[in-house]
Amino acid sequence: MSQRVTVNNTGPMTDGVRLDRAQITVPITSDLDIVAARQRGRLLAVELGYTATQATLIATAISELARNIVLYATRGEILLTGANDGARVGIVVTARDQGPGIKDVPYAIAGGHSTSGGLGLGLAGVRRLMDVFEITSLLGQGTTVTVTSWKR
Amino acid sequence: MTVPILKQRDYLIASIQAALTDADLKHLRDALVAQVGDYRSRGVIVDVTALDVMDSFAVRTLRDLAHMTRLRGAETVIVGIQPEVAFAMTQLGLRLEGVAAALDLEEGLAYLDSRVKRGGMTRQRLEG
Ligand SMILES: Nc1ncnc2c1ncn2[C@@H]1O[C@H](COP(=O)(O)OP(=O)(O)OP(=O)(O)O)[C@@H](O)[C@H]1O
Ligand SMILES: [Mg+2]
C-alpha cells in the first residue's frame, strides 16, 4: 500500500502553481553527488534571487534528501525546478528513488527514529526547512519526497 | 579533498578549505583522533568557515570527533560556523551538544588556552 503524507506550512497549496519547463536532474549514487546536488540547488536559489540564508536552508534540505537516497536506496535522483504561483517564485526539489520504501511514513517523518544509527533528524528537519513537504513511499517500490521553498 | 592539519604548540588546527564529502569528513575525524596521540596534543581546532552546509551527517561526525579526542585527552573546538549555517542547523534541529564552538580561530585558541591551562582536561567529566 502506498503511503502519502503532505505537510504544508504555508496554507493550502493553490492550484495555480506552474513549474518552469527547465528542470535540473542530478543523479545520486555517491556522497560526491550529495555535494553536487546541494551546490546546484544553491546556485539555482541564488539565480532566482533568494537570500543567502534561504539558499542555505534549501542546500541543507537537499543534502539530507540526497544522503537518504545514498544510504537507503543506493541510487536515485534529485530534480530541481523553478516554480511560480502567480504571486511567488519558488523552488521545487524532488528526491526520488526505487529503493526499499519506508514501512511507516508518519513514524519516519516524526523525527528521532533512525534505522541506520543516525539522528533521525533528516526528514523531520527538512519539513521545517521548507514550506511544503510531500512524501510518497511504497514498500519495495521506492520513495519520492517533494519539497517547495517559496522565495521571501 | 584532504584537509590540511597544522600543528601549533600543543594544538592541532584543521582548516577546511572547501565542501567536504561524507568520506572526507570521516577521514578528517580519524586523522585528528590519531594525530592527537602522535603529537600529544591537548587541543584541536576545526575551522569550518568554508563549509556552506552543515547537515545532520556533518554535525554527527564533528560531535563524534570531539568526543573521541576528549577520550584521548584533547579538547576540540569548532570555529567559523557561518551565520546562515547556524540558522539552518537550528531550523533542522541540530545541536552541537557538549562540543565547544568559538567565533574564529583566535577565539578558538583563547578558549583552548583557558581550558588547558586550568588543567581541566583530566578532571573534566567525560559525558556531555
Ligand atoms: N529514501 C529512503 N528510502 C528508504 N527509507 C528511507 C528513505 N529516507 C528515509 N528513510 C527511512 O526514514 C528514516 C528517517 O530518515 P531521516 O533522514 O529522518 O533520519 P536518518 O537518515 O535515520 O538519520 P539522519 O538523517 O538524522 O542522519 C530512516 O532511518 C530510514 O529508515
Ligand atoms: Mg537521513
Q: How would you sum up this structure, described in words?
A:
The complex is a heterodimer of chains A (about 150) and B (about 130). Chain A has helices spanning about 30-45, 50-75, 105-110, 120-130, and strands at about 5-10, 20-30, 75-85, 90-95, 130-140, 140-150. With about 150 residues, chain A is an alpha+beta fold. In chain A, strands 1-5-6-4-3-2 form a six-stranded antiparallel sheet, covered by helices on one side. In chain A, α1 runs antiparallel to α2 and α2 packs antiparallel against α4. The longest helix of chain A has 22 residues, at about 50-75. Chain B is an alpha/beta fold and about 130 residues long. Chain B has one domain: 2-Layer Sandwich (Transcription Regulator spoIIAA), CATH 3.30.750. Chain B contains five helices and five strands. Chain B has helices at about 20-40, 55-70, 85-90, 105-115, 120-125, and strands at about 5-10, 10-15, 45, 75-80, 100. In chain B, α1 (about 20-40) runs parallel beside α2 (about 55-70). The longest helix of chain B is centred in the first third of the chain and has 17 residues, at about 20-40. Chain B is globular. The relative contact order of chain B is 0.16. The interface of A and B includes residues 34, 52, 63 and 118 of A. The structure holds adenosine-5'-triphosphate (ATP) and magnesium ion (MG). Adenosine-5'-triphosphate binds near residues 115, 119 and 143 of chain A.
- Our estimate of the beta-strand percent of chain B is 15-25%
- Which consecutive residue ranges of chain B, at least 5 long each, have pLDDT under 50? 122-128
- Kindly state the mean pLDDT of chain B as a whole number? 91
Distance between the termini of chain B: 31 Å
Element pattern of chain B in H and E? EEHEHEHEHH
Determine the CATH superfamily of chain B: STAS domain
DSSP helix fraction of chain B: 40-55%
Keywords:
heterodimer, A: 152 residues, alpha+beta, Heat Shock Protein 90, six-stranded antiparallel β-sheet, 4 helices, 6 strands, globular, B: 128 residues, alpha/beta, Transcription Regulator spoIIAA, five-stranded mixed β-sheet, disordered C terminus, binds adenosine-5'-triphosphate, binds magnesium ion
